Amino acid sequence: MLFTTNLISVTKGIISLLQNPSNILSVYDIEDGLKESWLQRLSLQYVKSDRATAQIIAQRYLAASPCLETLLKLPEDSLGYHYATHLISLNFDPNFYRSIQVNSDTDYLLLRLRQTHDIWHIVTGFGVDGMGELQLKAFELSQTRRPLAIVIILGGLFGALFSSPLSLASLWEEIVLAYNLGKNTRPFLAQKWELAWEKSLLVWRQELAIVHSLLD
Asked: What is the pTM of this model?
């Protein structure tokens, strides 16, 4: 029954996402459906192979919801200021993501990824449009082996095949570049971003060794 329920959730989410790529609830349906899968277990095993990430998972480090007005008082080059202006420009609440009750390492991993999703956007420089989301998912796949990333990437390629087949080559190139960027960047999951909101975005990128043309 558990497998059937998960399969229904994943299928429902994929169909809904293909119909409306901007429906974030569909993304959560897919990931919730994959939570008990062997792919998700492999993802957890992979991220825990990094000592610093394994320590954060063991600590169950989660940050309190930030006050955007407070972050706006930080220097304009800081991560916190960039994060606040980013969310305000999108009219997003910091707690927009679907929450998860943390009863396992997998629960923690998924919640932390959801909690820091927009921080990853800011630090990588990937946009929040369709292309940017696919780039970030490729980056995530490289860093975490997250099964949701595989589904989203395949969905993006599938959609492009029917809507704009001539764009497939350039789309695939961007996905590969983003994947390689993630492979050569220090683990994002090992970072306690919220303890250093005041640190400049440039310094964060330098410390994480993240360098690509979007940041030039």
From this structure: 0.89
